[in-house]
Design goal:
This protein is mainly beta. It has one domain (18-126). Helices cover 6% and strands 55% of the residues. The protein is built from one helix and twelve strands. The chain has one helix at 119-126; strands at 18-21, 26-33, 36-39, 42-49, 52-55, 60-72, 75-77, 80-88, 93-95, 98-105, 110-112, 115-117. The longest helix has 8 residues, at 119-126. The radius of gyration is 18 Å and the shape is globular. The termini are far apart.
Length: 127
């Protein structure tokens, strides 16, 4: 009978890390990464990620956003480019242009800008 057992391999998650800018936090500058980003605070600058960006209800963003998908429940002053989808919830406000493969705007959302969607937009976002 063996006293020692072989160590079981530790499995690590292959998920991308999530960055959170919480309520009461203000950030100025460019944010770049590969993981998901959740914003509940204020940002001035630019947000670029290959992951998803979620803008909370109380968030105030003065930035252009480039991401795989963008979900907006707060306020954005800037352009949004997405490879997959841009979603504005009923509390979402966007003053800027959208380039995305797909767009979903809920009743009650505010959108003032232009929208370019479809496969051509997806190619434009890659550039």
């Amino acid at each position: 009978m063996a006293i020692f057992r072989q160590e079981e391999s530790i499995q690590t998650s292959e998920t991308k890390p999530t960055t959170v800018i919480g309520r009461g936090i203000s950030a100025q500058g460019d944010i770049e990464g590969a993981g998901d980003i959740v914003v509940e605070g204020k940002i001035k600058g630019k947000i670029t990620t290959s992951g998803t960006v979620r803008i909370g209800r109380e968030a105030e963003i003065h930035a252009d956003i480039h991401a795989s998908s963008v979900h907006i429940a707060g306020a954005i002053h800037g352009n949004v480019s997405s490879k997959e989808i841009v979603e504005l919830s009923e509390t979402g406000k966007l003053w800027g242009n959208i380039k995305s493969k797909a767009v979903n705007i809920a009743s009650g959302a505010v959108f003032n800008g232009t929208c370019q969607m479809g496969e051509e937009s997806k190619e434009a976002v890659k550039k």
